[in-house]
Specification:
The chain is α/β, with parallel strands linked by helices. The protein is built from 10 helices and 8 strands. Bound molecules: thiamine diphosphate, iron/sulfur cluster (SF4) and magnesium ion.
Length: about 280
């Protein structure tokens, strides 16, 4: 296995759930390469937050974007060169707060990108404010008396928006993470994996998750209603079992298939990009 390490020093807190995401995606990139997909054709994109540093730690093409804008950057890269595999990494604040509208429209379009959400249910980098997935009553830096609002269920929102691959994992289960990351990356269309990533410093949920998680078995991921029921079983606030695995998989035309059919293929596209660049100088 290629290490894919970079020169960057890792500054995540010891025990942070981001390490599992990092090691799982590295394993998946290695698997892709072993199966003949060149890593030169992979681009990873991140927002801003603790999660975002992941692009500094993996030696493939990357774009470190800004808070809430992972999705439009990933979409633009995919549209400019549909041969690339584009994988976005976003925080829950980043994806489900500031960048939520982008996520909904990417799902609606079924654009062929993968989003991996480091859902620690807190703003980690800015030291502990609540996010759209923090539970009711969450006490953090900006809510010392506890939040007064219910969390959203992002997978339910994504399902109703048109996403064609939806899964959930935790940072305490790397085998599952590797499987669902691989499925998501190979899926044709918009895929999203919500990772219950524990932030040991500002919201340590390891014990809570370990007691409640179970892997989906006998679940028909092709059935929208089954997916919806399983996604609703735990709504980020209630004390219920938490299903892990792929909830929904659907084969549907992608945005690129519907709209982008360059007549001359990659060579023609390169010429067009050169023209655009020449015009802009
Ligand atoms: C447009 C914009 N708004 C706010 C910020 C400040 N900011 C930086 S990171 C962050 C929160 C990050 O939380 P999350 O996306 O959940 O990532 P985590 O640190 O938990 O991985 C915020 C609010 C910013 N950098 N840019
Ligand atoms: S603050 Fe939380 S999310 Fe950020 S590196 Fe530390 S443990 Fe991880
Ligand atoms: Mg977060």
């Amino acid at each position: 296995m290629k290490n894919l390490a970079t020169y960057a020093q890792n500054t995540w807190c010891p025990g942070c759930g981001n390490f599992s995401i990092l090691n799982s995606i590295k394993a998946v990139l290695n698997m892709l390469e072993a199966e003949g997909f060149p890593l030169e054709k992979v681009v990873i994109v991140s927002g801003i937050g603790c999660h975002a540093k992941i692009v500094d730690y993996i030696n493939v093409n990357s774009f470190y974007s800004i808070h809430g804008r992972v999705v439009p950057v990933a979409e633009a890269i995919k549209l400019a060169n549909p041969e690339l595999k584009v994988i976005g990494f976003a925080g829950d604040g980043d994806a489900y707060g500031e960048g939520l509208e982008h996520l909904i429209f990417a799902a609606k379009r079924n654009i062929d990108i993968t989003m991996i959400i480091h859902n620690n249910r807190v703003y980690g980098l800015t030291t502990g404010q609540y996010t759209p997935t923090s539970p009711l009553g969450f006490k953090g830096r900006s809510t010392p008396q506890g939040t007064k609002e219910l969390p959203i269920n992002p997978l339910e929102l994504m399902l109703s928006s048109g996403a064609t691959y939806l899964a959930r994992g935790t940072s305490h289960g790397m085998d599952l993470l590797k499987n669902i990351f691989k499925e998501a990356v190979l899926h044709k269309g918009f895929s999203l994996v919500d990772v219950l990533q524990t932030c040991v410093t500002f919201y340590n949920m390891y014990e809570y998750y370990d007691k409640r998680v179970y892997e989906l078995k006998g679940h028909d991921a092709g059935d929208f209603n089954q997916a919806l029921n399983k996604i609703r079983e735990w709504d980020y606030n209630i004390d219920a079992p938490i299903a892990l695995g792929a909830f929904y998989k659907k084969d549907a035309p992608t945005f690129e298939e519907r709209s982008l059919q360059p007549k001359g293929g990659p060579a023609d596209r390169l010429l067009k990009i050169k023209d655009i660049l020449a015009e802009s100088v």
